[in-house]
Amino acid sequence: MSASRPIVRALVLACTLAPAWPLSAQAPPRAALFGGAMSARVEILAGGRAESMSSPAFLGQGMLSAGRMLVELTYVQGRLAPGAGAIAGRDLVDGRVFVGVRPWDWLSIRSGAQARAFVLAGGTRRWVLGELCGRAESSLPGGVARGHVELWVAPLGSSNTGERLDRARGGEAALTLHPPNRPLWAELGYRIDRVQWGGTRRETLEGVSFTIGVGLPAVPGL
Amino acid sequence: MTISRLWPVVLLGALTAIRSATAQTAGNLLARGVRAYQNLDYPAAAGLMRRLLDESPSPPERSVQAKALSYLAAAEFFQGQRDTALATFRQMLERDARNRPDPLVFPPEVQRLFEEARRLTQTVSAELPREAEIRPDGPPLVAHLFASSPQDIVVTVGPGEQARRTLYEGPIGDSLDVRWDGRDSLSAPISGGHYLLKVVAREPSGRIHRSLEVPLEVTRQAQDTLPIPPAPDRRQILPERAGGAPPLAGLGRALVLVAAVVALPVVVGAESDAGDGRLVVAGAVGLSGIIGLAARGSGRAIPGNIQANRALRDAWRHRADSVATENARRRSAVRLVARVGEPIIRNSEQP
User: Fold this and answer.
1) What is the pTM of this model?
2) Is the CB of residue A207 less than 8 Å away from at least one CB of chain B?
3) How many structural domains are present in chain A?
4) What is the CATH number of the domain that holds A171?
5) In chain B, whose CA is at the least distance from the CA of A154?
6) In chain B, which residues have their Cβ closer than 8 Å to the Cβ of A43?
7) Tens digit of pLDDT for each residue in A193-222?
8) Nearest-neighbour CA in chain B from A112: distance (Å)
9) Cα–Cα–Cα angle for B47, B50, B52, rounded to 5 degrees
């Protein structure tokens, strides 16, 4: 993995700084805001001890699209209640920022960063990942609903505890309902990711979210 | 250049030379005959005109024939051969009822003799186009009839002696136009074939003393029908639904999405920690696909495109209906082409 890191870094950087996409000027910008709740569940396996926590969390999302370019921000915050094996609860704060291009209407390629923090009474555990992401979208019969599947990998990552990133992968699938000629959206989503650090720590976050969006669709024709 | 390549040129030259020689001979004889008549050498004039009429290798033109017959009759008259001159004038009228001796050339006594011949000779000549199109609902075939003197005629047309259609029956003064619309005696469009336009001159007693027969070769020609305009091409049809796919493809996408949601934990390598939350989303996606498919087919309707497509289809249907109507009209319409042969005069003594 270490040998390929410079290449991956360059790739992430190129995707992140790819805003000079020539098609970006061809259509007026479109913007949308999502807000809703997520039922989050976190499983942490560290030092042979498994902890399980869950929480309703706030989920906010913003999206800006101009031609084939897009920028997406996601923010999740919640108070994780301790479950099986967990001694104490903690705050969960998760944020993502992605810049991407949409070569076809059904596919977008994004790159960006994700940061997550678990705030405990004794300190905060924080990490940052550099991610590459692909999302496929498709309309569903009826023309009102649309679905998407997203997968991401994080070739880069750092933690404030100094642990080395072993592997980080995640994905998301969602059903978006968008009544014709209305600026309102509703999205039912499912996301899951797993991050492994230093060979001893494994975090899994899974969530089912329901959000309401306001704004114009990012994909023409939806 | 070989002989075989030369022979068409040689043949054409020979034909031209023969035709030219014939014309020169006829013209020369006529000129010599006229000169002899003007010099009061009537026997010579009559001889030259007879040579012109009887011994020419090919029949002279009608105008030359008429002129030669006029001079011949006048020469015969001035030689004291009145009956012969009368017969010559009658012959001139039989060739064409419109023939007249030139009043500026021939004196009144010759004109009087011609008028007597006219009274005695009741003949009709016909003028028709060499080829004419006949339509029952369109322009008919027009025969221009010219009479040498007032008489009663019967004009009929038909394939034989039976089932002839009478086109005209009554008197003819100087001239008369007779029209035929291509229908038979039962007023049905004819099917084509060999026909005869017959002009029969009757005496007051009803006896037929002369008839003129004009052969008509009638062919029935079907009109070409027009091709039905092709239906609008798929590329011309605008999408009527947005964001949609064909119904089965749309359902297929929904199923793929359901599978992707269910398999997501496996793909990210977190299947051991995954809960059942994803099944809610998978179920919602599947339900949405089925409901969407049942409720609205595929995609959101685009009224503008639907209207444009309807206008396109209506315009095509209108054009196709117009062509179908026109084709039906063409199929029912009969188009006949008549080729007119040389008229034949039959006297009563002829069978």
Assistant:
1) 0.48
2) yes
3) 1
4) 2.40.128.100
5) B268
6) 273
7) 999 988 888 999 999 999 998 876 544 444
8) 18
9) 110
